[in-house]
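Priority: medium. Attachment 1 of 2:
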């Protein structure tokens, strides 16, 4: 049975038991036929035997408190806007294992697929995505309040100055790798031998600056090729006139279409035998590329999807987390990591800053808790007689304490890494030259640096040798007085 079908059956079993929860002993055969589930499983769940998905695994790498601490650490980083990678999660798990390991030899480590199993046990809202690098200034500009204020100012200016679509223009630049084609579907009777289209990219880039209006108009581009002089050949192919980020109308659909059409033209020229697509070819084909790219519809869609014209700020703002939503998310009790499935296993989703001492280390705390729980087991009847479920609540508190202790270790390790990075970034660097040109091995560079350092020390010692002694300087000073 696949995991999907297994989960669906377990959901039906839970639904069936919920419908007969007031009966002392339901008819399991009839109930199993009614909901289309296994009678044996239905009976087992009724008598309190857990499903395989909620049963504690026998080969667990991390303890319950370690895994919960790891989840809280992940949640904390996610709320801070720095979600961890699989590698970071694995490194933190190995850190916890090494921190608590007291036996001989090497501590256990996470296997190759452990992190994928861990991520699979997280609540459904956690998904794995691919982050793309972005300039620091661009990331800082993605602030809900600032973007909202920008749209408010834009709306005021449009109304106050009676701005029309023909008055709204936006300029942006994009870069082309000359001769770089793209994947494209073809129809062939020889699929094995027709998988490639030959082309020779020069790897030279050309920057193109385009300007479009909200009305759907476009003006001639500004082309910035690499070179020291202008070539007459470039200007044979120019055409007659009229032929950044999340708020840039050009950065969306228009520039995507621009690159798409360019790649198809490179492929077309290659199929015609022009394998070496150079700057001359680029200038020759640019007019047709722009005609196919910058249609009135494409340009207007670029303005529309950025919410600028027609003015619709919510198109952008709805994609961003508002301060109110972030605050409510931090206050609300979020999902918890489902490991055993019991209700008492839940712990608050928001990390705490309360200190956990004494004892001062997780290992010592675990020893104390193990002793306490042995005592609890020996007087369980007395505790539960005084207050029903007291022994279980004490164990829950103990597990929570261990979780918070493990979480504290993870935070300390993270802060140590941040501090080390900041120290490296703030360290004063030298601009002295080791060697003017040519290849240089690391050991040779270190040898040259040491030689220069030793020479500087020898010069300093030589200067100190010819300085008058301190007592002589003081005597001269007193005689002058």
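Attachment 2 of 2:
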């Amino acid at each position: 049975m696949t995991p999907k079908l297994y989960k669906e059956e377990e959901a039906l079993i839970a639904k069936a038991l919920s419908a007969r929860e007031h009966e002392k002993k339901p008819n399991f055969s009839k109930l199993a036929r009614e909901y289309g589930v296994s009678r044996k499983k239905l009976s087992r769940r009724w008598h309190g035997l857990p499903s395989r998905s909620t049963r504690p695994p026998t080969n667990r790498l991390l303890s319950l408190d370690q895994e919960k601490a790891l989840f809280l650490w992940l949640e904390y980083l996610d709320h801070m806007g720095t979600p961890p990678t699989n590698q970071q999660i694995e490194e933190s798990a190995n850190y916890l294992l090494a921190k608590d390991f007291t036996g001989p030899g090497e501590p256990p480590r996470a296997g190759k697929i452990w992190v994928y199993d861990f991520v699979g046990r997280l609540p459904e809202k956690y998904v794995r995505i691919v982050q793309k690098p972005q300039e620091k200034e661009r990331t800082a500009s993605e602030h809900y309040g600032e973007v909202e204020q920008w749209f408010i100012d834009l709306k005021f200016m449009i109304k106050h100055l009676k701005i029309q679509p023909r008055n709204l223009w936006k300029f942006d630049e994009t870069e082309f790798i000359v001769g770089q084609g793209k994947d494209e579907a073809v129809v062939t009777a020889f699929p094995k031998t027709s998988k490639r289209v030959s082309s020779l990219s020069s790897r030279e880039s050309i920057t193109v600056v385009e300007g479009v209006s909200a009305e759907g108009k476009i003006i001639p581009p500004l082309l910035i090729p690499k070179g020291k002089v202008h070539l007459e050949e470039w200007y044979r192919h120019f055409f007659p006139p009229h032929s950044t980020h999340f708020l840039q109308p050009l950065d969306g659909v228009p520039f995507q279409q621009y690159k798409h059409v360019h790649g198809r033209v490179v492929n077309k020229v290659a199929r015609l035998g022009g394998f070496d697509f150079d700057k001359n070819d680029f200038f020759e084909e640019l007019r047709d590329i722009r005609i196919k790219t910058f249609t009135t519809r494409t340009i207007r869609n670029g303005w529309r999807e950025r919410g600028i014209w027609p003015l619709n700020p919510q198109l952008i703002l709805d994609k961003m987390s508002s301060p109110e939503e972030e605050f409510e998310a931090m206050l609300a009790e979020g999902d918890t990591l489902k490991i055993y499935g019991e209700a008492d296993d839940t712990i608050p989703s928001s990390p705490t800053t309360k200190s956990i001492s004494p004892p001062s280390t997780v290992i010592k705390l675990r020893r104390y808790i193990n002793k306490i729980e042995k005592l609890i087991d020996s007087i369980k009847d007395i505790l539960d007689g005084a207050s029903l479920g007291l022994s279980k609540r004490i164990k829950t508190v103990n597990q929570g304490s261990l979780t918070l202790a493990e979480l504290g270790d993870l935070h300390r390790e993270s802060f140590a890494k941040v501090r080390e990075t900041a120290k490296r970034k703030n360290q004063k660097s030298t601009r002295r030259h080791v060697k003017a040109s040519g290849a240089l091995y690391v050991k040779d560079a270190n040898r040259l640096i040491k030689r220069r350092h030793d020479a500087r020390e020898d010069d300093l010692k030589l200067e100190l040798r010819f300085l008058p002694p301190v007592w002589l300087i003081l005597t001269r000073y007193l005689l002058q007085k």
